What does this fold into?
Amino acid sequence: MKQIVKYNDKEYKLPFAVGLSDEPTAIETVANRFSGEEVQLPQFATAVYDTITGAELLGDWLTVRKGLDWFRKHFAKEYMVILD
It folds into this structure.
């Protein structure tokens, strides 16, 4: 079952199931793990980012690809800072 989060009057269908907090739209700071450059993301997007980085460690490239495609579509500027 796909998770859907409403944020800034738009619905976001998450690319895979992630753990969401009680406030999935609360803003969090995420840093690029190599450069240290930071971006602000809602918690649900941070959860997608965390799943991507975990999937990289496990070699789960299908999950990585789904997450990267989702990020490029919904958070393109942030993608360029933390994932590109």
